[in-house]
Amino acid sequence: MTDLFKTKIGRLRILAILEGISLLTLVCIAVPMKYWMGNPSFVKIMGPVHGTLFLLFLLNTLSVGVEQHWKFKEITWKVLLACFIPFGTFYIDKKILSKL
After folding, report:
1. In angstroms, how far is CA 46 from the centroid of its own chain?
2. What is the pLDDT of residues 17-52, one digit of tens each?
3. 48: exposed, middle or buried (C-beta count within 10 Å: 0-12, 13-18, 19+)?
4. 50-63: per-residue pLDDT in tens?
């Protein structure tokens, strides 16, 4: 795991996992707490956390894509699309990022 922090692709993989976990937390814990228990406090915390991780993932994907000379039509668009599909970052980490 410590090797992941040493490269930009490794850090992108970490962001992908964190972004996916933040979405899971938001959808499976925070939103039910808001609507079933009438407690929106966790949504107020996790919403901005997820949004920040989402934006960091987008920016880092573009940065890594340029630095690594990824062909947009082959890799970059798939990685970018992954964060728009719920839990797509887990899939893209396993299918693309882990192999780079």
Report:
1. 14
2. 999 999 999 999 999 999 999 999 999 999 999 999
3. exposed
4. 999 999 999 999 99
pTM for this predicted structure? 0.86
Q: Are 89 and 20 within 8 A, CB to CB?
A: yes
User: Would you state the structure tokens that stand for residue 33, as one six-digit string?
Assistant: 């707490």
Residue whose structure tokens are 């040493």: 6
| Total domains, the chain | 1
Residue ranges of alpha helices (H) inside the chain are: 8-25, 31-36, 41-67, 77-82, 88-95
Boundaries of domain holding 39: 2-99
